[in-house]
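Case study 2.
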Amino acid sequence: MLAVPDAAAASGWYQQALGATELWNLGSVIGLELQGAPFFLAEPEYNNWDTPGALGGTTTRVEVFVDDPDALLQRAAQSGATCDDPVRDHDAPWGKHRQGGFDPYGHRWLIGDSSPLHPHAR
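Prediction:
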């Protein structure tokens, strides 16, 4: 559950920018899905927690694995997200892994390919 100051505005951004689908909406708490991965947005008022903006720093790191991380990161950038980490190749124990990142609403998102989701030899 990601703390945001305005759940409706954030939901609209995630839908437009990333192609997320709204699953349900309780007003201050909204359930979304991004390419099969569910996540929640919530306004933290009365819940004893706060947004990254109010706390002055990133509070969450979200990792999502998709077929085309380059396209998703490009969509985020075109919608105004701070994209300070372009998708690039990383050497991993299982081989090449592609990943990049962006930051909407003070939350750190890393978008990678599906390579880490499969069993790997140790």
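The mean pLDDT is 87.
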